[in-house]
């Protein structure tokens, strides 16, 4: 869901198809490896720190929401470029909470690699769908798509904090 909502806001900028495929692939890879790492090292890490993934995600999505809201009022909105660093930040930020999925994955399903592969594919598909829907939304309502994206990210950040 977080990959979908963030890709929706980036889709507003009419991102190129190649960039969408690269970003969705990166998100899928991170959704494969983060739970795998979480499965092996996550339990001790969460036991000895006070940092929880939901607080980091809340902060990231809240900042993105505020950024989009500010750009709604600009004459010519800033176009975000998904370069190498931007794509990595995108993939890590939406995959950070999947680290905690790895904590209980072994108890849900015996074959972790099959579950992670399915998780990887579904997250990549949802990322592509978000880009596509953001592009369509931008075509239909223009500049107001920044306002809609801002509201979606804000509500999602609140939802992350309360779950």
Structure in a nutshell:
By secondary structure, the protein is mainly α. It has 7 helices and no strands.
CA-atom Rg in angstroms: 16 Å
Unreliably modeled segments:
none
Q: Mean pLDDT score, rounded?
A: 80
Strand content: under 5%
Shape: globular
How many DSSP-defined strands?
Answer: 0
Number of helices: 7
Helix content: over 70%
Q: Structural class of the secondary elements?
A: mainly alpha
Query: Helix and strand succession?
Result: HHHHHHH
Give the terminus-to-terminus CA distance: 13 Å
Largest sheet, strands/sense/barrel:
none
What does this structure look like?
The structure is a single chain. The protein is 80% helix and 0% strand. By secondary structure, it is mainly alpha-helical. The longest helix is centred in the N-terminal third of the chain and has 32 residues, at 17-48. The mean pLDDT is 80.
Write a concise keyword list for the protein shown above.
163 residues; mainly alpha; 80% helix
Fold blueprint:
Blueprint (H helix, E strand, L loop, with lengths): L1 H10 L5 H32 L4 H20 L11 H12 L5 H8 L3 H30 L2 H19 L1
